[in-house]
Amino acid sequence: MPGVVAFGVLLAGLGGGAVLAWALGAGKRGRAGAGGADADLLARLYVLVEQEAAATRTEAMHQRTHLGELERVMTGRIEQVRTELAERLAGMVGSMGREQAEVRAAQAEALREMAETSARQLSAIRVAVTDQLHEAVERQMQTSFQRVLEQFTAMQKAMGEVRAMTAQISDLKRLFGNVKTRGGWGEAQLKAILDDVLPEGAYESNVRLGPGSDVVEFAIRMPVRSSTPPVLPVDSKFPTEAYERLLNAVEEGDAGAEKAARKSLENTLRLESRKIATKYIHPPRTVEFAVLYLPTDGLYAEAARIPGLIDEIGRTCRVMIMGPALMPALLRTVHLGYVTLALEDRTETIARLLGATRQEMLRMDGVLEKLARNAQAMSTSIEEARRRTRVVSRRLRELDAPEAEGMEMNSEMEFTGPAPGNTASGQA
């Protein structure tokens, strides 16, 4: 700030000197014309400039003094503010320290309470878990003991059933010891499968196919379109002796006896297949093959275990060997053929129905066309009647117009009276 004042004084002095120099120069230039009057004017100007410079210097000194005092005041004020800020900061630091100490103390107390609460809860949970485990162990032990008792009871019951089954097996052995009874059992089982899969009337029982007296157990009608459809011969065989010898040899672990029993079973199946081929395959009364049915899956599995037996019998004798698991698949194929025939018949019926429907639709189209022509003629007649009605209405309006004019004239005469000419003539 003092520098600004000094700079102002310097500028004032430079301005005064410039004015004085200008005045002196002007005085020298105008000395020849103006004379002594100009010198007096210059002296006065010089005095004024000196006075102005002195006043400026005095003002500058006053400004410098005022600025010094203002600087001292501002310095004191700044020191005071700094002291107040330091005191406030110290107070804030102390307050924050106290608050932090209180917060730490509160947190420590809360953590201690949480730890105590957690300890109490863990103790309660431990007691509850211990009680529940004890109850669960007791229930499990009781359940296990009850299950053991039930299993022991079931075992005793199963032992009784095994004894009863053993007696039944003995009865079955005695029953199957008779060849006729054994064959009847296989035939009954095969009949149950046929009844379960095929539709009614799809097979016949005890049918004579050839010229001799040989009768096949079942003859399945094939699903073909013919007045006398071919049949599929199905015969049930149950070579129990060879099968039992094979099972006994396998159970005893006698390889030689097992091989001999398996060979005996193979020979029996080949012999029965040749018999079926000779007795029951007679095209075109029958199809080109027949079926040898084995009543048990175990017997069929032993036959399938003999390498190449089933394929060779099917190729040479044209006989398919099947068990209870495979027979339904063949019968479902036959049943699918019957379903296909039924669908074809249904399709033909639908085609005929569609043809008849098409003819009816053509007739309906003709009827609708006639109705359209009649409707068009009726529309024309209605339009003509409307036109005639409009003509009659127009004529009626034309008739009503003169009457309306006459009524208007009468009304005017009543309101205005008769004309003057008519009155004079009447008086005369």
Automatic annotation (TrEMBL):
Region (Disordered): 399-428
Keyword Lipid biosynthesis (UniProt): no
A Pfam family: RmuC
InterPro entries: DNA_recombination_RmuC (IPR003798)
Keywords attached to this entry: Coiled coil, DNA recombination
Highest taxon in the source lineage: Bacteria
Keyword ATP-binding assigned: no
Functional note: Involved in DNA recombination.
PANTHER family, A to Z: DNA RECOMBINATION PROTEIN RMUC (PTHR30563:SF0)
Family to which the UniProt record says this protein belongs: Belongs to the RmuC family.
UniProt-recorded name of the protein: DNA recombination protein RmuC homolog
Protein source organism: Acetobacter farinalis
